[in-house]
Amino acid sequence: MTDSAGTAERMTVRRPPFAFARSRALHWNAARPEFSQIVNAASLAMPYLEPYLIKTMREARPLITDEKLVRELDLYCAQESAHYRQHRRFNDELKAASPEAVNACEAQLAADYDRLGTHRSLRFNLAYAEGFESMALAIGHMLIEDREFLFGRADSAVASLVLWHFVEEIEHKNVTFDVFAHISGSQFWRIVGLAYATAHILWRTRGGYHRLLKADGHWYNWRSRLALLGVITRILRKLVPRLARILVPGYHPRRVADPQWMQSWAALHLEDAGAPARLDTSRLREATPVALPA
Ligand SMILES: [Fe+2]
Ligand SMILES: [Fe+2]
């Protein structure tokens, strides 16, 4: 899995068998409940955001004259489809644990993406898709680099879900960029899409963890508020320089080198397709699975 490999060759559609535990759905990282709820809020968006990305790419498909890009687009849609289905399974557990907060978030997300998908132009939606994917690439690098801090000793299924998702986000890093370049290519609209998608997702995620942390009571605890501020500051410190790089003229996601850890993760999947669903979170330096009971 190197950057010189063709995009289609890099991309694999995987369906790891995650076993989510309802009792650990909300605070799947017991040491970091605030980070858990930030991730949970982002997870709630996936069954709305990713079908919108797929719909946008499918609308663009007949306009693409490059067969290789069409093949990449199809693989992209297959990966995104697998992502939101797994997140929906996890979100069902979140909904059982915190129904009012989750229902309120989902209603808002459903309305947002229905509006964008119905009323905005294809050019705008392609720019949003590319903006989101560039941000997801930056987030994927941040999460993988800081995996031991963010996911260490957390529930294996949820940590594995998030890391699987972002490995595949990195695998398909240049598809929406190339589709946007093929159909529009406007640098102005690319930046508009990045700004809109980033602001939209961050705002909805903020609203989501706000609701979830109010529902679980952490919002009213000053120690928890400080911990939340601490983890957000840590995330932004690592994320902002990566987001800033996207704005530099000549940026292309293909030039962003993949993290080394991805290779050990991909090798693990090749060895045992189920293993990435149960990473050993006490040994995240390498991608190592928890052993199955005999
Ligand atoms: Fe995805
Ligand atoms: Fe993606």
Task: Explain what this protein looks like in three dimensions.
The chain is globular, with a radius of gyration of 18 Å. The protein is built from eleven helices and no strands. It has 294 residues and is mainly alpha-helical. The two termini are 32 Å apart. It is 69% helix and 0% strand. The protein has helices spanning 7-10, 33-60, 67-97, 99-119, 122-145, 147-151, 156-171, 175-183, 187-215, 222-246, 260-271. The protein has one domain. The mean pLDDT is 95. Bound molecules: fe (ii) ion (FE2) (2 copies). Residues 50, 80, 83, 165, 169 line the site of one fe (ii) ion.
Distance between the termini: 32 Å
Number of helices: 11
* Fraction of residues in H or I helices: 55-70%
Number of strands: 0
Average pLDDT reading? 95
Please state roughly what percent of the residues sit in beta strands, choosing from under 5%, 5-15%, 15-25%, 25-35%, 35-45% or over 45%: under 5%
Rounded to the nearest angstrom, the radius of gyration is: 18 Å
Low-pLDDT ranges:
none
Question: Structural class of the helix and strand makeup?
Answer: mainly alpha
Describe the biggest sheet? none
